[in-house]
Amino acid sequence: MLRDGDFVDGACVTPEPDVMWLSPPFLALRLDCGPMAVPDCTSGRITQVASANGWPEPEIAEVHFMTANGQYRLVFKDGSETTGSSSQP
Predict the structure, then answer these.
(1) Using the 8-state DSSP alphabet, how is residue 36 labeled?
(2) DSSP secondary structure letters along 39-59
(3) 3-55: pLDDT as tens digits
(4) How far apart are CA 33 and CA 72, in angstroms?
(5) How far out from the chain centre does Cα 85 lie?
(6) Which residue ranges form the domains of the chain, and what is each CATH number?
(7) Which residues contact 51 (CB under 8 A, 6 or more apart)?
(8) Does the predicted model carry a pTM greater than 0.70?
(9) Strand partners, 60
(10) For the chain, percent helix, then strand, then coil, each to nearest 5?
(11) Cys bridge to 70: 5, 55, 78, 86, which one at CB 3.0-4.6 A?
């Protein structure tokens, strides 16, 4: 379920400014970029992290990028966690 403030990957704009189309599967989660610049955080890294951890199953609740070079902590909807790196050149 999408909630206000969730990160959504796969949205397209429409001619109507208040309408967006969403392309499933939806990647909706809490996203914290830490010291990483937002474009670096969202340009492929989020999908890379999600896919590397089995998304869409298990469902992901939160991704926290902890360092500028892509170290992350990922929290699944069941409360379990994992860490890793999404370093990109």
Answers:
(1) S
(2) HHHHTTHHHHHHHHTTTTSSP
(3) 777 787 776 767 787 777 777 777 888 899 888 888 888 878 888 999 999 99
(4) 9
(5) 14
(6) 7-85 (3.10.20)
(7) none
(8) yes
(9) 76
(10) 15, 40, 45
(11) 86
